[in-house]
Amino acid sequence: MKKVVFLSVSLIALLTSCAVKKSNPEDYKVNEESVINTLKFLTSDELEGRDSGSEGLEKAALYLEDVFAKNSIKPYFATYRDTLSNFPKPAYNIVGYLEGNDAKLKNEVVVIGAHYDHVGIGMAVAGDSIYNGADDNASGTTAVTELVNYYAKEKTNKRSILFCFFSAEEKGLLGSKHLSAKLKQANMDVYLMLNYEMIGVPMPAGKDMVAFMTGYGKSNLANKINEYTGKTFIGYYDFAIKYQLFRASDNYPFYSEFNIPAHTFSTTDMESFHYYHQPGDEFDEMDTAHMTDFIQQMIPVTEKLINADTREIVLKD
């Protein structure tokens, strides 16, 4: 005679929940203290403005390497350091790689990046000669470190991710020019490039957007993100067109080399934030609650972009 075992509905639900890991990116919480700690270190006077080839930028490089190491993110090259071939002083992109978990889609790569250099020490203003570069671009660098923290913990990415901290952006996008050419020569299949720059302060009240994106009309990325979020998360910003910001950050070399959607996200209205390339661009001017919230909102967006079954982000004619 067979023994019949009856399980309660609640017990079945409990066993099912234990057997299947449910991963909801909206449940993950970005830690503002972590945002503060990274931003405060990168903007400290000890780093002397993070000029490329300087001791200050070397300290920043060591910090970012440690972010990868603590999260068990592997180096893409022999080490995390990608030595620039187009800059006279020793300078390095810091590059980590997280393989995708889908047998087919892992061959496609999404690049997530930000430049971690700034302009160093310059003409003193009110006795301050250290250009700490909090918004430009310790803020964007911090955003990428938080995405590293998320993906290292959740490992939900179907496509592979190349996390890049670029050097010598302030010298003419030299770090991203070097790396994008190197990856193109290696025939890497780069699907999408997402770059973060100047997210330290929110858009002014009255702006119908959370952030703007350079190259707004060059792909369907902004429309797709707004569809994902159910609101005008990414808006059109005249300033970005007027000053050709699409060509002014590390997204552009990837667009040029690979002919793919490659864009920079920013929340700083440069017409109202007056510390661009000034000593006043310091930690105390940054809104870390805003930064935390922006990164938090970008996580489910990034999840959808990285895990879509098809290449739904495409360039426009």
From TrEMBL:
Residues 1-22 form the signal peptide. Pfam families: Peptidase_M28 (PF04389). Residues 93-298 form the Peptidase M28 domain. One of its GO terms (molecular function) is metalloexopeptidase activity. Keywords: Signal. One of its GO terms (biological process) is proteolysis. This is Peptidase M28. It comes from Flavobacterium beibuense F44-8.
